[in-house]
Amino acid sequence: MAVKVLIIRKVTQENVADVFGLITQLRAAAARQPGYISGETLMSVADPDRYLVISTWQALEDWEAWLKSDERRKIQKKIDGLLDGPTEYDVYHYPERNAATLRDFRGWEGG
To answer: pTM surpassing 0.85?
Structure first.
């Protein structure tokens, strides 16, 4: 089952260029890993020092193998030295077809 990994980093403006260079290295290396599908980087509208990377993998095991790899750890260590706080990770997958849905929910989201 495909997973999306949300990675949040707080980057001060003076380190943006260096961090983006390292994120580019991470993405290029990830693209060579089994199960990697895609990645994108977004900047928060409310907090321009907050960046979100969305990384998509074919399976949780593929992401976990990449997360634990020496190549990734070395680059991430360099990134961590430039951040204003720890890197945060959160992994999501699509609900099963037979799971409850929010189709009839009318909440604040505009549904």
So the answer is: no
